[in-house]
Amino acid sequence: MPVVRSSEAVTHEIHGARFVSYATPLTGSKELCAWRGEIPPGTKAPAHTVSREEIFHLLVGDLLITLDGRTERVSAGDTLIIHAGATLSLENPSDHTAISWVTTSVGLTAELADGTVITPPWAN
How far apart are CA 8 and CA 24, in angstroms? Predict the structure, then answer.
C-alpha cells in the first residue's frame, strides 16, 4: 500500500507559489496526481491554459480566480472544476497564505500566454 508521509512530500516553487507534491507516478499513483498549493499574500500567478481537467479545492483563505476571462472570489471550502483547455490565473489579495488541494490526471501541462509550455513535476 503506497503511503506518502508528509515528511516525504516533495516541494516545488514557481511563480511565487509552493506546490507540495504527494501523489505522482514516482510515489505510486498510476492515474492521478495530487498536491497542496500554498499561495502567499500578494501572489499573482500568470495566466496558463491547462491540458487536463483539474479539481481545485481551497482549504484556507480567499483567492481571486479568473477562469476563461471570468473572475470570481473563491473562499475556503469552495471547489473549482477546471476543464481541459481552460485558461486560469489566480491572485491572493489578502495578507494571509491561501492553501489549496488540487487533483488532476497524470500528464498535465500548462501553456503560458507567451507559448511556454510547463510540465510541472507535481503533476507528472
Answer: 12
pLDDT tens, residue by residue, 29-73? 999 999 999 999 999 999 999 999 999 999 999 999 999 999 999
C-alpha cell read off for 112: 503560458
* C-alpha cell, 73: 472570489
User: Given a cut of 80, is residue 1 above it in pLDDT?
Assistant: no
State how far the alpha carbon of 21 is from the alpha carbons of 6, 36, 83, in Å: 9, 7, 21
Residue 104, CA atoms < 13 Å, CB-side half-sphere: 25
The CATH code of the domain that includes 41 is: 2.60.120.10
Count structural domains, the chain: 1
Distance spanning both ends of the chain, measured CA to CA: 20
Structural domain includes residue 1: no
- Give the structural domain span for 79: 6-123
User: For residue 119, what are the contacts with CB-CB under 8 A and spacing of at least 6?
Assistant: 109
